[in-house]
Specification:
The complex is a heterodimer of chains A (115) and B (115). With 115 residues, chain A is an all-beta fold. Chain A has no helices and eleven strands. Chain A is 0% helix and 53% strand. In chain A, the strands form two sheets. In chain A, strands 2, 4, 5, 6, 9, 10 and 11 form a seven-stranded mixed β-sheet that branches. Chain B contains no helices and twelve strands. The chains are: A mainly beta (115), B mainly beta (115).
C-alpha cells in the first residue's frame, strides 16, 4: 500500500543550528502534505499545509520564518527548523494525501532534540 | 473552531476485556470522523472512519458509530488483545472523507492491555 517515508527518525542538534526533516510519498503523488507537531500527552497540532509548487499555509501561531516548508515536487516536502531552540524539541509528523477524498498517510515521525 | 475531545489515559485493561474509548466533537456542518492508531515507534495508521451520520466504521474488531445527535464517535472492541496496546486518536475532517483538508485531532488515549 501507500507509504510515506519520513527522515530522519531521530535528530539531536545544538541550539542555534538548523535541521531539515524530509517527507516522501513512496508510491503515490502527494498533491498536499501536512506537517504536525506532537507534544507529550497532547494532541497533534497542525503546523502547516503545503501544496506542490506553492507556498505553505501556516496555522495561526506557527512562525513561518522559523519553520520553513518546501514542497518542491509531488513526492517530497521538507520542514526546516531554523535557529533551533530547546523549546523546539518535539515530535514532528508529516502526512500526505493524493487528492480530495483519498486517505491520509502518515510518516513515522521525527524526534527532534535541541540541546 | 473545530475540536475533538477524547478520554485521557492511560486506560489499562486485561486481555479479552471490553473496550470503550469515548470521543466527542465540536464542528459545524457534517465532518468526517476518524480513529487513528499509533503503535509504539510507528506513525499513525487509519483504523476506521465514518463520513456521515449513523455510519459505522469497523476494522480489526474495532467499531465506531457516527452519532450526530450526541456529536460522538466512541471506539469499541468486544475483546481486546495485548497487541492492541497503542495510542488511539480520534479526529475529524471537514473534507470529503479522506482528510485532504487536514485533520483536527484529539489528545490521544494510551491503551495498555495486560495479559
Amino acid at each position: 500500500g501507500a507509504v510515506v517515508s519520513q527522515h530522519p527518525s531521530r535528530v539531536i542538534c545544538k541550539s542555534g543550528t538548523s535541521v531539515k526533516i524530509e517527507c516522501r510519498s513512496l508510491d503515490f503523488q502527494a498533491t498536499t502534505m501536512f506537517w504536525y507537531r506532537q507534544f507529550p500527552k497532547k494532541s497533534l497540532m497542525l503546523m502547516a499545509t503545503s501544496n506542490e509548487g506553492s507556498k505553505a499555509t501556516y496555522e495561526q501561531g506557527v512562525e513561518k520564518d522559523k519553520f520553513l516548508i518546501n514542497h518542491a515536487s509531488l513526492t517530497l516536502s521538507t520542514l526546516t527548523v531554523t535557529s533551533a531552540h530547546p523549546e523546539d524539541s518535539s515530535f514532528y509528523i508529516c502526512s500526505a494525501v493524493e487528492g480530495a477524498g483519498s486517505p491520509l498517510h502518515f510518516g513515522n515521525g521525527t524526534r527532534l532534540t535541541v540541546t | 473552531g473545530d475540536s475533538v475531545t477524547q478520554m485521557e489515559g492511560p486506560v489499562t485493561l486485561s486481555e479479552e476485556a471490553f473496550l470503550t474509548i469515548n470521543c466527542t466533537y465540536t464542528a459545524t456542518g457534517y465532518p468526517s470522523l476518524f480513529w487513528y492508531v499509533q503503535y509504539p515507534g510507528e506513525g499513525l495508521q487509519l483504523l476506521l472512519k465514518a463520513t456521515k451520520a449513523d455510519d459505522k466504521g469497523s476494522n480489526k474488531g474495532f467499531e465506531a458509530t457516527y452519532r450526530k445527535e450526541t456529536t460522538s464517535f466512541h471506539l469499541e472492541k468486544g475483546s481486546v488483545q495485548v497487541s492492541d496496546s497503542a495510542v488511539y486518536f480520534c479526529a475529524l475532517s471537514r473534507g470529503s472523507g479522506g482528510g485532504a483538508d487536514g485533520l483536527t485531532f484529539g489528545k490521544g488515549t494510551h491503551l495498555i492491555i495486560q495479559p
